[in-house]
Hints:
There is one protein chain. The strands form four sheets. This protein has a seven-stranded mixed β-sheet with strand order 2-8-7-6-5-3-4, sandwiched between helices. Strands 9-10-15-12 form a four-stranded antiparallel β-sheet, covered by helices on one side. A two-stranded parallel sheet has the order 1-11. Strand 3, helix 4 and strand 4 form a beta-alpha-beta unit. The chain has helices at residues 15-27, 37-56, 70-82, 99-110, 128-134, 157-166, 238-273, 308-317, 337-341, 363-384; strands spanning 3-4, 64-67, 90-94, 114-118, 139-143, 170-174, 193-197, 208-212, 279-281, 292-297, 320-321, 323-324, 327-329, 332-334, 352-356. It is globular, with a radius of gyration of 22 Å. Helix 1 (15-27) packs antiparallel against helix 7 (238-273) and helix 3 packs parallel to helix 4. Helix content is 38%, strand content 16%. The relative contact order is 0.16. The chain is an alpha/beta fold and 387 residues long. It has two domains: 3-8 and 256-384, Aspartate Aminotransferase, domain 1; 15-251, Aspartate Aminotransferase, domain 2 (3-Layer(aba) Sandwich), CATH 3.40.640.10.
Amino acid sequence: xxxxxxxxxxxxxxxxxxxxxxxxxxxxxxxxxxxxxxxxxxxxxxxxxxxxxxxxxxxxxxxxxxxxxxxxxxxxxxxxxxxxxxxxxxxxxxxxxxxxxxxxxxxxxxxxxxxxxxxxxxxxxxxxxxxxxxxxxxxxxxxxxxxxxxxxxxxxxxxxxxxxxxxxxxxxxxxxxxxxxxxxxxxxxxxxxxxxxxxxxxxxxxxxxxxxxxxxxxxxxxxxxxxxxxxxxxxxxxxxxxxxxxxxxxxxxxxxxxxxxxxxxxxxxxxxxxxxxxxxxxxxxxxxxxxxxxxxxxxxxxxxxxxxxxxxxxxxxxxxxxxxxxxxxxxxxxxxxxxxxxxxxxxxxxxxxxxxxxxxxxxxxxxxxxxxxxxxxxxxxxxxxxx
Length: 387
């Protein structure tokens, strides 16, 4: 029995996206920049996908720029704004951003930009008053993640974006985990820039998009041809863009029903696991991604030798796939920056785990997973319990 509970890492492409890509590889493989029949046919695929992706977030199609994924979309947002200025300005991000935002911000800071990281509470939520207080006369952009990938917390995005709009600064959000799982309406939300990734919503890997509100100007981060309105040069990968569009269409059609189904499964798994003394829930219990659960392994009951990765490996041997938020570099386990920002100690911050559900998840999966997790923790506890 194999159970995949790592849907926040990647999702299996849906059958509709696979079929669309096969069709394009066979019959619509031209260079979309070419003016002949073959090029026009490929260009039509891209424009249809642009419409489909735009409809997922209720945005105009011309506001969508295709990228190689969410990471490039985030980089284009931050560097695209920064390159508009001859002198360094001020940037605001949250303290729990994905590295695809945190690292560009770090590079900008090294080049002279002022960077403020907004604090979060122990549930990983930003206080909107902190954003108001952080804005300076030279602030040009705020970037706040929509749904945190590691702990599942959803930010008060409408309020944060409105504060930025009222102060005349641009607002970007990394919506990679939220799109296709939460309803996003960019006719209502005052968001200027929003990043998407295909493989988080049952599309192919290797393609994403940046929504750019009409009227917002960016400078390209890459240089080359004039594709994607001059902001993302290079011949577009027609087939995977087409697959992204098809996946976005299906995600929009199924969003409401599927989100409700996942919430029920998430809560069922939460109920199973909250009576386990070895697990401490993390993230906001209510303001949370519908498919997402996260915990730390209780350091008071388990040896320091037991980390999040310990449980990930043990579950993998049992045929169950989950993930851990800590990173291992050169043999050294590093605490999760997200958990540290939420107030957890370094000892606790290497003990995080994440279970994320998806289209193929059923009740039997969550029941079995909960039972196996409890059995594993009971088994390894007496072997490694601190004396």
